[in-house]
Known about the structure:
mainly alpha
Amino acid sequence: MAVSQRTMKNYAWATGLRGVLMLLAGLYALIFPGAALAALVVVGGILLIIDSVLGLWSLTFGGGKSGNYWFDVAANVASLILGVLILLSPFLATLLTAAFIVYLAAFVSIVVGVMQVWIVIRERESYARIWPVLLSGAFYVLFGIVLVLFPMISAEVLVMLGGILLILFALGLFGWARRLWLRAKETD
Length: 188
């Protein structure tokens, strides 16, 4: 099925607009990482409220009943309460959410690093060289310790890395939009 020239140009414009939005979000995350982190938490709170209201509506009026009705009601009410609490105190919610995620990442990093070192030492006969795995495990543990010692700075750095990824994704979208636009011009 052939796509018309107008449809192809609309796709190109939509893709370019997505690229602009991604670029703006990425720049915002790079320039204002703390505010971007707070915005993500607030958007998460709004999504929790919307999801829980829709879930309660579905359970009550929409026929969306599962095998455990009261568990679904409790989960949706808990999500609603959490979403409201996030919106009532976004600063505290941002601190708690960021700290939880960073500490979780730190815990996983330290556990993975210790496991790598433990396994490579225990089964060193299976490895031609153990130093790359030991170095990798040590870096995992060091990264986890840095996350534990500086959780909020780490969260902001991770948001900035996300901003860099958004900018790179935006550049890819611009290239895709250009290709769509040129393909639309070829069909003239």
